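STRUCTURE:
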């Protein structure tokens, strides 16, 4: 069992570092599940994301340093916001929502960049105020936190029906894999990042305009015919 734990997480079981990596992996797995559910416009996705934050960032902060709450609480707020935002869409089936899918816009891009910077600053926390993050050999650390913040910001976009946010999540996962290859990444972390990329690409595909939706939109663009009815 210890050998399996080390193979998956690259740390010895029972250590503080090993527990943190395992909790982070559990949170990442739940986020991937949330992405798959979001691709189906399912309300349960946001509950999965709430569990992801609780199992990962929130539990790590409570166990190993309350300064982590500076980042964990906003992530929980994003999941709660997504649940609230989806509740505004008309229901479809048992847990589905008729989400209004929106295309790319400069406004959504600007908001995405602003949120990414804000979430990254919160993730850096004391490291930003003490200047530690500006020291040598911290490039991989702040890049990883930046890429994680892209996912959080993209979830806000998905909550509002922004389709291109899926590509931001896929790009974040791919870039994170490239960053980790510069070190000795845990097998579980790499596998979950691949899962994240695939889930995001599936979400991008699933949120495409369907032929019926396209025909309806085109029909609504013209005034009704005076010869009908």
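SEQUENCE:
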């Amino acid at each position: 069992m210890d050998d399996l734990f080390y193979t998956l997480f690259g740390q010895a079981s029972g250590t503080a570092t090993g527990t943190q990596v395992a909790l982070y992996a559990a949170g990442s797995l739940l986020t991937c599940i949330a992405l798959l559910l979001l691709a189906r416009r399912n309300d349960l996705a946001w509950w999965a994301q709430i569990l992801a934050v609780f199992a990962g960032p929130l539990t790590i902060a409570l166990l190993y340093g309350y300064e982590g709450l500076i980042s964990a609480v906003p992530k929980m707020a994003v999941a709660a916001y997504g649940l609230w935002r989806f509740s505004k869409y008309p229901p479809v089936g048992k847990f589905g929502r008729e989400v209004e899918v929106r295309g790319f816009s400069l406004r959504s891009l600007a908001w995405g960049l602003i949120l990414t910077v804000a979430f990254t600053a919160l993730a850096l926390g004391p490291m930003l105020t003490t200047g530690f993050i500006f020291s040598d050999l911290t490039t991989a650390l702040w890049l990883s936190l930046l890429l994680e913040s892209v996912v959080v910001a993209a979830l806000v976009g998905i909550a509002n029906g922004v389709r291109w946010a899926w590509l931001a999540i896929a790009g974040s996962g791919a870039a994170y894999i490239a960053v980790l290859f510069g070190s000795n990444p845990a097998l579980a972390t790499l596998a979950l990042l691949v899962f994240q990329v695939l889930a995001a690409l599936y979400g991008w595909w699933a949120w495409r305009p369907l032929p019926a939706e396209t025909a309806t939109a085109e029909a609504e663009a013209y005034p009704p015919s005076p010869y009908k009815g």
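REMARK: The chain has ten helices and two strands.
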